Amino acid sequence: MKRLNKTLILFVVLLMVGAGSITTLNPESSQDIIGNPTYWIIAIALFFLIIGFMATFEALEAMKKMIKGQDETVEEEVEEDDWVDNILHKLTDAAPLDREDEVATDHEYDGIRELDNNLPPWWLAGFYISIAFAVIYLLRYHVFQTAPLSAEELKIELAEAEAATQEYLKNAANLVDESSVEMLNDESRLLAGGQIFTKNCAVCHANDGGGGVGPNLTDAYWIHGNDIKDVFKTVKYGVPAKGMIPWKDQLSAAEMQEVASYVLSLQGTTPANPKEPQGDLIEAKAEEDMAPSDSSASEVITEEENISSL
User: Fold this and answer.
1) pLDDT at residue 19, as a whole number
2) Cys-Cys with 173: which of 144, 232, 254, 271 at CB 3.0–4.6 Å?
3) What pLDDT, on a 0 to 100 scale, did the predictor assign at position 293?
């Protein structure tokens, strides 16, 4: 039984060392190990396997002693246990049972004597390390100020998080596709779309969108639809049967969104040489288009005044 107890103590110590070594890994790896139930199942199975093995071994040793006689001792077993006893003694620095009288005090309560053992070396080491850590911390953070305090560190991390958020939002523009794209109204991005159109699309559709080899993009006639999703899809996959190449390999998703929004912004403009209509008539009527502008309203008022004056 003594051998079993010492083996269990060593197993617990090794388990603690393994758990401490996990913390030295990067956060993702340590979380994967800790969160993986397979590792825990293996550790628990190994724990009970060791217990079963040592219990079986102790039972066999007990049977051997019964056969050979209770008074016979095995010197090899004592020698095997000596190194374990040395380790435990170094960890606790407690007086052996045969020397308890040397550290016994006069205090006794209900038959329990109080011993004046030394403090465990591991506890003293932790105490001294904490004192050294406190001194170094005081000098570094409050005297020499070579490292930021908690509040300053929080501000730095918040700034880094904000920069990471902005970088994500910048890259998130390329996450759109024909099912999630939306019309852009930002002038800077529409201007960028116009530059892309001039560089890549004007050769077939003219600089003002009036059409050439490709159809007129300023009228209300559309071949593949006039919704932002339709235009984005046409730009992305092209129309190979009519000579329009797919631009998904040349342009990013953000650039295709910009040029598609620019194409729709050409609606209602007057090109220099408009091409004849192609496709189906699809008029996008917005509420603001239905309302008369200020100039048309003033013309109506003027005509009513002229009629009343007659």
Assistant:
1) 66
2) 254
3) 38
What is the overall mean pLDDT for the chain? Answer: 79
pLDDT of residue 161: 93
pLDDT in tens, 271-283: 999 999 999 998 7
Instruction: Give residue 131's pLDDT.
Output: 95
- pLDDT value of position 300: 39
Query: Is the distance from CB of 192 to CB of 258 less than 8 angstroms?
Result: yes
Q: Note whether 256 and 197 are within 8 A (CB).
A: no
Q: Quick check: 92 and 62 in contact, CB under 8 A? A: no
Contact between 33 and 25 (Cβ < 8 Å): yes
Domain ranges of the chain: 2-92, 187-287
187-287 belongs to CATH 1.20.1070.10:
no
Residue 231 contacts by C-beta under 8 Å, 6 or more apart in sequence?
224, 225, 260, 263, 264
Cβ atoms < 10 Å from Cβ of 298: 11
| CA atoms of 94 and 165, how far apart (whole Å) | 57
Residue type, 140: R
Output the 3-class SS for the chain.
Answer: CHHHHHHHHHHHHHHHHHHHHHCCCCHHHHHHHHHCHHHHHHHHHHHHHHHHHHHHHHHHHHHHHHHHCCCCCCHHHHHHHHHHHHHHHHHHCCCCHHHHHHHEEEEEECCEEEECCCCCHHHHHHHHHHHHHHHHHHHHHHHCCCCCCHHHHHHHHHHHHHHHHHHHHHHHHHHCCCCCCCCCCCHHHHHHHHHHHHHHHHHHHCCCCCCCCCCCCCCCEECCCCCHHHHHHHHHHCEHHHCECCCCCCCCHHHHHHHHHHHHHCCCCCCCCCCCCCCEECCCCCHHHHCCCHHHHHHHHHHHHHHHHC
What residues in the chain have per-residue pLDDT under 50?
A: 1, 71-80, 285-310
The alpha carbon dihedral of 259, 260, 265, 268 has a sign of positive
